[in-house]
Design a protein that fits this description.
globular, 13 strands, Virus Head Decoration Protein, Chain: A, three-stranded antiparallel beta sheet, mainly beta, 0% helix
Length: 144
């Protein structure tokens, strides 16, 4: 991996809901208002950076919520893939299981929303700025 830089625009601090053993992962805020790992295909609040991992309950935890940040992958990722979270908070591509792809200019109705000839991401947390050939590599992600 090349020596890429991060551009952190906004970081917030939230108490942890539990110890989180690894950084560079997507995190969310639980129903108690505490930070925990984002689950599979779940919308995240942001990214817990390497070295910022909380070791105890209620530890102040900095979360990057805007910018370009390094995230660990859970699968192969291509440049500009929309990414979501796997069960460990790692970046994985948005797949057909969590996005509706309309091909050939067809129209589909999803509830009250009509979509024509495009992709409707369900839980996109950002876009990959680098490629990864598999799990546990680090890529830059532009958070959305």
């Amino acid at each position: 991996m090349a020596n890429f830089s991060e551009q952190l625009i906004l970081t917030t601090t939230i108490p942890s809901g539990a110890a989180i053993t690894s950084g560079a992962v997507f995190v969310k805020v639980n129903s108690s208002g505490k930070v925990e790992l984002a689950s599979t295909s779940e919308k995240s609040l942001g990214v817990l950076r390497l070295g910022d991992t909380p070791t105890i309950l209620d530890e102040d935890t900095p979360v990057v919520v805007s910018g370009i940040v390094m995230v660990r992958t859970g699968a192969a990722v291509s440049i500009m893939d929309p990414v979501t979270s796997d069960s460990s908070g790692r970046a994985i591509p948005v797949t057909a299981a969590i996005a509706t792809v309309i091909t050939g200019g067809a129209t589909a109705t999803l509830g009250a929303i009509n979509v024509t000839g495009g992709k409707l991401p369900i839980a996109t947390n950002g876009f990959a700025l680098d490629a990864a050939s598999g799990a546990n590599e680090y890529i830059r992600v532009r958070l959305v």
